[in-house]
Amino acid sequence: MIRENVTALLKELEGGNVYHERVTLVAATKTRTPEEINEAIVAGITDIGENKVQEFTAKYDDVKGGRRHFIGHLQLNKVKYLIGKVDLIESVDRDELAEELAKRSQKANIVTNILIEVNIGCEESKSGYPLEEAYEAYERLRGMQGLCVKGFMAMLPISGDEQYLGSLVGKMRELYDRAKAQDHNIEYLSMGMSGDWRLCIKHGSNMVRLGTAIFGERHYPAPVESAKNAAPADGAPENA
Fold first, then answer.
1. 103: Cβ–Cβ under 8 A, 6 or more apart, which residues?
2. Residue 169 in contact with residue 191, Cβ under 8 Å?
3. Is 17 helix (H, G, I), strand (E, B) or coil?
4. Helical H runs in 20-130?
5. What whole-number distance in Å separates Cα of residue 205 and Cα of residue 190?
6. Strand partners, 188
7. 93-149: per-residue pLDDT in tens?
8. What are the tens digits of pLDDT across the range 7-49?
9. CB 149 within 8 A of CB 178
10. Which one, of 84, 134, 135, lies nearest residue 112 by Cα?
11. C-alpha Rg value of the chain to the nearest Å
12. Quick one: which of 83, 113, 122 has its CA closest to 190?
């Protein structure tokens, strides 16, 4: 099933988005086993995204290949587990997090690629910069040593109004284009999940994060036993 789903999705994405840009397919691997993830990679997936640091570290050595993304909410005391191991952190939603990433990256003598998360639907349940503050946030974060801003990420609210949702993607695209016009590092507008990805690429997204569309319905097994260097459970107290 995984192989067939990946093949069909990659085929559908061959034409790119509305601007004829290549669309990057990120496999959202929350709760998925390394065996499932490796099957998706063999089928053609090049990018994989984890939501929780504990899962990221527990699976890290068993997943063979793929660019590693972190796509979930990131606590400050978990940053150290990602530095040097992740290719793109998509969920930089506040200055405090950016500063910690920059500090840890400079200490490790590396540059960490990030996306700036925007709360495009103004939802209290979601994190991210408000749209009206996002460009100023971009200007601040692009000046931080140790970071490279590669674009923006957002999640659409749940709504049956496709015109409204399309307008939100359009606003994100305007933000992306404004930054890209002066910054060659800007590459990605990451919008679109299994329920809305077609609408998002229709309005300008060039990166989508799909889980159930690749792996089928999600099951929630018992927590994965962490490796000796794994992070503690997300939300657990820890000495930084």
1. 146
2. yes
3. coil
4. 34-43, 53-59, 95-107
5. 6
6. 151
7. 999 999 999 999 999 999 999 999 999 999 988 999 999 999 999 999 999 999 999
8. 999 999 999 999 999 999 999 999 999 999 999 999 999 999 9
9. no
10. 84
11. 17
12. 113
Q: Which two tokens stand for residue 194?
A: 């299994």
Q: Element (H or E) spanning 209, and its range?
A: strand 207-210
Cα–Cα dist 18/22, whole Å = 10
Structure tokens at 233: 């459970």
Domains along the chain with CATH numbers: 2-215 (3.20.20.10)
> How many helices and strands (H and E) does the chain possess?
8, 8
Q: Residue written as tokens 């899962």?
A: 55
CA angle 165, 131, 90 (to 5 degrees): 85
Tell me, what amino acid is at 177?
A: D
Measured in degrees and rounded to the nearest 5, phi and psi for residue 223 equal: -55, 140
What's the token pair of residue 102? Answer: 């920059």
